[in-house]
Amino acid sequence: SFVLFCAGLLLARILNTAPLSATPTVLSSFLEHASFELYKKYRGQFLKLLQFILNDFLPRCQQESKKDTDARQQSRNILRVWIQKALQTLHNTGRFPEPE
Fold first, then answer.
1. In angstroms, how far is the first alpha carbon of the chain from the final one?
2. 41 has a pLDDT exceeding 80
3. Distance CA 93, CA 71 (A)
């Protein structure tokens, strides 16, 4: 659908720009709501994006933060834990978690 295409495009644009301090918070909120549908549509490609966020984007967020406040660390941790839990649920059950 067009909405999923736009969601995927938004995600790609966020990940292809230099991270700002609010980026992990924006990604967390976005993924909590859109990830299930994005996974259903893009499967392996979406999982690769999640791995990219964990392995490349979050470390870049930390490097880009000149003043690494507790709030910024916490927002990165929330995103990291959310992705890890989603991937673990998929691994354990074979199903990507639906939004609450």
1. 22
2. yes
3. 32
DSSP 37-64: HHHHHHTHHHHHHHHHIIIIIHHHHHHH
Contact criterion met (CB below 8 Å) for 28 and 75: yes
Confidence of residue 32 (pLDDT cuts 50, 70, 90): very high
- Using the CB atoms, write b or e for 39-49: b if 16+ within 10 Å: beebeeebeeb
For residue 7, the surrounding DSSP H or E stretch is helix 2-15
Residue-wise pLDDT for 64-98, tens only, equals 766 777 888 899 999 999 999 999 999 999 999 99
Give the whole-angstrom CA distance, residue 89 versus residue 100.
14
Q: Is residue 55 a contact partner of residue 13, using CB atoms and an 8 Å limit? A: no
